[in-house]
Amino acid sequence: MPAPTTRQAPDPFLRELSDWRDQFQRHFDDALRELEARFTARPGLASTWSALRDFLETEGKRVRPLLFLAAYRLFHDSPAPPTPATYRVACGLELFHTFALVHDDIIDGSFSRRGQPTLHRRLAAEADIRRGENLALVLGDILFGFTVENFLLPGQNPTRATAALRYFTTIAQDTGLGEALELALLRRPLDQVTEDDILSTYYLKTARYTFEAPLLVGAILAGAPEPVLLSLHDFARPLGLAFQIENDLHEVGLLPAGATELAYDFRTGVKTLFLKRYHDALAPADAAALRACLTRDAPAELIARLSDADTLAAVIADLKQETAGHFQEARRLLLAAPLRPDQCSGLLDLAAFIHRNCHHSEAAANTTANSAAANA
User: What is the dihedral of CA 167, 171, 176, 180, to 10 degrees?
Assistant: First the structure.
């Protein structure tokens, strides 16, 4: 099976989550107004806040708040809707994601995000690019601090809130470790990089950060017992690996036309599972030539090296099969977990919903934007 399946018609659980997502946006707007008051109280920061606000209001997929609210709903000991303080934790997760994007875009040298200029490029409109990057770094740090504050607002069970924040701080550190590992691997040739190295970055930057963190934070605040938390931890790992491998394959599908603008991993030389598998399947001379391309920032030459059609097709087919296996493993672990049937089916339906509706929307938006620009 390519992915977890679900009913075509929205069930009550997903309809309820849709309503909660609308509520989330209202609380997110409230959070931005609080942040705006802090910026506008400081003379000279009006234009800085304008750039940051526009970046924050460019809506993404909202995967993390959705997973968080779903876990809170499924594992809470009462059917009551989330409190305002709970919604603000969801806002914190989205703010942390934005913080990570701001720093990632600087590291990657990206020009666009969600079809719009990256924050450091927006800020560079009034200054040179280095000053724009420096200011964006500081704004990212402010977003991280505001993230923590949203975890600590009154209205939560104090014991659960403390446990959720303690757990979240480990996720924040692991996300940084994943980024550091990815950067360290940039300096190593592909023949000196192992699949375990690459999978470690996937686990830290996708499985833990995107899937495990929102699920467990929601479950902790809902009062879920330890066996449930362990089950969610196990469920998130194969799900995150499947989504990251699909993202790699999506970038392959952007070649060659979209490589410079959209395929960031190819442009920056990030070591992906696809690239490792393709390299290892080539003849020694071709593999050496591919490694030489990866030592230079030359995407056109790299694309030329991805010209072995048979090898390319075989690697893509193998990774698609592997992705399906990760989805199956996530489903198997969930069905074996100590969960109620409604909890299990709710998580499976949610995973299928995200897979159908939330994957690769950023790249699609960028593609649309680039096409429009080309036709203008």
Answer: 120
Confidence (pTM) = 0.86
Q: Calculate the alpha carbon distances from 266 to 45, 166, 183, 231, 298 in Å.
A: 36, 36, 14, 35, 9
pLDDT of residue 3: 45
The string of pLDDT tens digits covering residues 165-180 is 999 999 999 999 999 9
Burial of 78 (0-12, 13-18, 19+ CB in 10 A): exposed
CB-based contacts of 331, cutoff 8 Å, min separation 6: 4, 348
Please give the C-alpha separations between residue 342 and each of 71, 222, 272, 348, in angstroms, as whole numbers. 12, 16, 36, 10
The helix (H) or strand (E) run that includes residue 72 is helix 63-75
Give how far Cα 42 sits from Cα of 37, 47, 49, 128, 175, Å: 9, 11, 10, 23, 31
Indicate the class that CATH gives domain 12-375: mainly alpha
Q: Indicate whether 85 pLDDT > 50.
A: yes
